[in-house]
Amino acid sequence: MMKTKSFIYSLLFLSFVSFTGCQKYLDVVPDNDIETIEVTFEKREDAYTWFKTCYSMIVMDISDINTNPAFWGTDEVVADDYSRLNVAYGIPGLLIADGLQMAQTPYGDVWKSTKFYGGIRYCNLFLQHIDNVYNMLQEEKDLWRAEIQALKALYYFELMRRYGPIVLVPENIDAAAPIEQMQQPRRPIDEVVEAIVELCDEAIPNLPYYKEQQQNHYGYFSKEGAAALKAMTLLYAASSLYNGNTMMADMVNRNGERLFPAYDREKWKTAAEAADEALEIAAAGGKQLYQGSTEWPTPMLNTIRDIQQSCLNIDYKNKETLLCVRHQRLTPPVFYHPKFTEEDLNYYDQYCVGGFGASMKMVEMYYLCPHLKNFGHDVWIRWKLTINACRQWWRSVQEGQCVLRVTLTIWLSVYSI
């Protein structure tokens, strides 16, 4: 009996020692096991990962034809129900054009921590810590800093385009700061413009010309891109959107400061001077307009070819490129290409659904349509069906085929050039 009790006490003692040992073991934190911002900015490769993250929060919202409301948020196009209801990721511009924009959960919203203000926070941290990287030359640090300064200016500019007066973040606010410190007021337009111009001016001297960029930096800011951004900002500042906007004259921030300034004609001079500076920098970088194509049979088609070439950047050799933004999605063409019949699918993309088209307003504004005036005020006649009795445009529509009268007048304008 005594042996049994001794055995039980021994087990209990061993268990206590074992549990105590485990508890002490679990309380130990391994050295250098926590990744901090300071650790991230010790090595070049980790700093470059952060650098790319700074860009990641803006690319989709300015380049993607679906998420940027500037593409579909106007009355230039119309869309069918398929495009509106069956697109998984949504096209907010269509809903804005329908008059469905709202203040609670706005379509195309980028004023949040996961969008542009998140990008600005990443930029600020990069600018604060880039000098701590030990395996980089100072010249490369200066280049990366300039690229991020220009990127931060772009974040501000895109926010200003959408919201007008915005909150400026010269330095990050500590995440543990009281809520009163977090609630920063919107700043007047002139201060926003000044912040963008200052960032561009700081960046331009340390940026290379586009033709001098390293291949893996073609998608980042060049000297031409930063100069163009500065010129665009000052043009917006001089325009009636912000310069003497009477509709917004009474708009003030929480401190009672007027956000939209009174009209100042000198802003137009400042914008013109910035545009001249941007043109000079672009010319020094070898930039020029596409012109003089001869590969197609008529002057008009070659002019169209020049325009097409200006929109392409094959092998990053576009003569007009000032800033490259890498497009993140390849699906948009399926919506504005025509919907093809089954027998044509061997030659065309089977996913083309033909969901978008020009609105009647835009067709009637078509700049090659002087013949539409022949209909006078009888607008409805333009949209009547008629029979094509002319062989002149047989490549587009067969003789005897039923077609909208307005379509024939557009072709007549084109073929008469």
Question: How would you describe this structure to a colleague?
Answer:
With 417 residues, the chain is mainly α. It is built from 18 helices and four strands. It has helices spanning 2-26, 37-40, 44-56, 59-63, 69-72, 81-85, 92-97, 116-129, 138-163, 179-182, 189-203, 223-238, 266-284, 299-311, 333-336, 360-364, 379-382, 405-415; strands at residues 77-79, 356-358, 385-387, 402-404. It has a two-stranded antiparallel ribbon with strand order 1-2. Strands 3-4 form a two-stranded antiparallel sheet. It is globular and about 60 Å long. The N and C termini lie far apart (116 Å). Residues 19-26, 368-381 and 411-417 have low confidence and may be disordered.
Structure summarized in a few sentences:
The chain has helices at residues 2-26, 37-40, 44-56, 59-63, 69-72, 81-85, 92-97, 116-129, 138-163, 179-182, 189-203, 223-238, 266-284, 299-311, 333-336, 360-364, 379-382, 405-415, and strands at residues 77-79, 356-358, 385-387, 402-404. It is mainly α and 417 residues long.
Largest sheet: 2 strands, antiparallel
- Share of helical residues: 40-55%
Mean pLDDT: 80
In sequence order, what are the helices and strands, one letter per element? HHHHHEHHHHHHHHHHEHHEEH
Structural class: mainly alpha
| Count of distinct strands | 4
Instruction: Specify the overall morphology.
Output: globular
Approximately what portion of the residues adopt beta-strand conformation? under 5%
Number of helices: 18
Structural Rg: 30 Å
Biggest sheet strand order reads: 1-2
Q: Which stretches are poorly predicted, pLDDT < 50 over at least 5 residues?
A: 19-26, 368-381, 411-417
Report the end-to-end length measured between terminal Cα atoms.
116 Å
